[in-house]
Amino acid sequence: xxxxxxxxxxxxxxxxxxxxxxxxxxxxxxxxxxxxxxxxxxxxxxxxxxxxxxxxxxxxxxxxxxxxxxxxxxxxxxxxxxxxxxxxxxxxxxxxxxxxxxxxxxxxxxxxxxxxxxxxxxxxxxxxxxxxxxxxxxxxxxxxxxxxxxxxxxxxxxxxxxxxxxxxxxxxxxxxxxxxxxxxxxxxxxxxxxxxxxxxxxxxxxxxxxxxxxxxxxxxxxxxxxxxxxxxxxxxxxxxxxxxxxxxxxxxxxxxxxxxxxxxxxxxxxxxxxxxxxxxxxxxxxxxxxxxxxxxxxxxxxxxxxxxxxxxxxxxxxxxxxxxxxxxxxxxxxxxxxxxxxxxxxxxxxxxxxxxxxxxxxxxxxxxxxxxxxxxxxxxxxxxxxxxxxxxxxxxxxxxxxxxxxxxxxxxxxxxxxxxxxxxxxxxxxxxxxxxxxxx
Length: 440
Hints:
Blueprint: E1 2-4, H1 10-31, H2 38-48, H3 52-69, H4 71-81, E2 88-90, E3 98-103, H5 111-119, E4 128-133, H6 141-146, E5 154-157, H7 166-176, E6 181-184, E7 190-191, H8 195-200, E8 208-212, E9 215-217, H9 224-237, H10 241-249, E10 260-263, H11 264-269, H12 280-290, E11 294-297, E12 303-305, H13 311-335, H14 339-353, H15 355-372, H16 375-399, H17 410-424
Parallel strand pairs: 3-4, 3-6, 4-5, 8-11, 9-12
Antiparallel strand pairs: 1-2, 6-10, 7-12, 8-10
Helix pairs in contact: 1-3, 1-4, 2-3, 4-16, 9-16, 9-17, 12-13, 13-17, 15-16
């Protein structure tokens, strides 16, 4: 059985929002006498408590102002409460013919391990083919792949590509794919035996066009950078806890480059993979969003891959990511027919995706407000810090194999996101090209 995250009902949404609103309104009432608002609040309160209607008006003002002043901790408290909830079990008897695409230029060090794990999958071998695109390889990648051909349907393509990069390689594989469903993996990504079954299962529902699963870090114990990346992956970059929260809220799910599948007919309808894009996954994601296509999240479709272990390679990868995101988001914002939805989605992404930055700023402001004697605002900052750290703990518990020691690398995780945010703000798309990211 595959585990799915169903959308929570309206009653939970209303109940959660009401409980948090009352909590923060009460907290506002307790702490506002210790703030710069104290004299205004006292006189306003006494003037309104002279009658029943005025009292109700005062309570309304209390609730509204409390929520406004505590908006950021309110938001992260809301996310924390939606980190938990029921799951639905879906049968994995839906087993369409699956084509697994793997771009693999000069990947002799990792491709054998990747193929070995895919072939050990419990997905029926007669309903699966693996297409490795080794175009441009000058090492033993093709030969290693050919050595696995007796164990399953493995095809190696080495035709010259019209354009450099992963998207062109994926399109070459797509042109030869026989499957009804296309799955995408990197040459250093390994799957668990049940990953493919779980990944494909949501497509048994007609309204689901694509699905993705969480991805952990294969070399997380290598150094502090890989451990920080492992922590990051449990929350967002590896399709972690944020994806589960979004499913419960009925929000749109992102695609993140690997460990995802999509219906072949829909992919072809969208023109395949965008070869001019630095991030073909974001390009595909925005196209699906614009058409109102649903992407599902599969928490049990778990995979792991290698991440860069030195800063030079890591920086190059993140610059490409931020550049690609900037370009694709601008294209989407310029062409979408629903500007309001796009703007709200962008704001939501910026807050959710940068939770670690909010925690970092909250810690600083908590100290500043304490020194200024503004305990009202200090409480808001401390609650923001508490809720975001609590979210990270839940993320590690659910998507980090309960390796809570990863939380010690939270400061480096914050630095990574501050670096990416700074780079994104200076229009990084200028001069950035698609390059393979070395992992060591």
